[in-house]
Amino acid sequence: MVVQGERPGVGGGHGFMGSILRIEHISKDYGGLRALDDVVIEVEEGSITGLIGPNGSGKTTLFDIISGFTRPTAGRVIFDGRDITGQMPFRIARAGVGRVFQLARIFRGMTLFQNLIVYAKPGGDAKQRVWEILRFLKLDHLAHQSAQGLSYGQQRLLELGCVLMMEPKLILLDEPAAGINPALLEDVMEHIRELARRGKTIFIIEHNIPLVANLCQRVVVLDSGRLLAEGDPQTVLNDARVREAYLGG
């Protein structure tokens, strides 16, 4: 999926910088079930790319393979020019791949500040970095409160903050809109846009089709483990095959 030219709505006219993630003929079998079948995808650096498809289409399995939680049966994952296929999750995270899961994974008995400082990279001013991220996410006023008292949407933002502490180049977001009230969702979308403007690459699983159409420059569709369609949101969402498979015709 090679994208040329400007990024609509992101960065104000800056072009993509080339492919940062290549999924090369990835397949995944679970016994007699093939969850992914010869999937080939490229994600451009600095882009916001959406991954959609019906339940059971293989989206989360693909994210698990990219982030090292599952080994593929066949194929390779190339990130930033390096083969990371089958590496341990912590090694892939250190290489620059961050992941925000569908269910928030935070330390609920710790403060927001403590949650972030746990993920600080060696060197530099970790405390300053924590404050920068909390201000960016508009959570700085809650810095010394327990994460237990956060709304679900705020917990998702806190997990994103923990990922940002590791300074990733690529961020995998698994359904960031799920369970978030509409008022906070607009803030979440703007945070994602701003991260892309700052040079981060976002690969996002999402079932909220209006959000995908509004947020992403490219969309990839999986159906029954196979690549069904890819391209700009308008083209993909108007594809009859996508409507039939994902939108119910």
Describe this structure as you would to a colleague:
The chain is of the alpha/beta class and 249 residues long. It has helices at 59-66, 89-95, 112-117, 126-136, 152-165, 182-197, 209-215, 233-237, 240-245, and strands at 19-30, 33-44, 48-52, 74-79, 82-83, 97-100, 170-174, 201-205, 218-223, 226-231. The protein has a 6-stranded mixed sheet with strand order 6-7-8-3-9-10, with helices on both faces. Strands 2-1-4-5 form a 4-stranded antiparallel sheet, covered by helices on one side. Helix 6 links the parallel strand 7 (170-174) and strand 8. Mean pLDDT is 88; it is low at 1-15.
CATH architecture of one domain: 3-Layer(aba) Sandwich
Q: Total number of β-strand segments?
A: 10
Number of helices: 9
* Largest sheet: number of strands, sense, barrel closure: 6 strands, mixed
Mean pLDDT rating: 88
Strand order of the largest sheet: 6-7-8-3-9-10
CATH domain class of one domain: Alpha Beta
SSE succession: EEEHEEHEHHHEHEHEEHH
Helix/sheet category: alpha/beta
Structural topology:
Blueprint: E1 19-30, E2 33-44, E3 48-52, H1 59-66, E4 74-79, E5 82-83, H2 89-95, E6 97-100, H3 112-117, H4 126-136, H5 152-165, E7 170-174, H6 182-197, E8 201-205, H7 209-215, E9 218-223, E10 226-231, H8 233-237, H9 240-245
Helix pairs in contact: 4-5
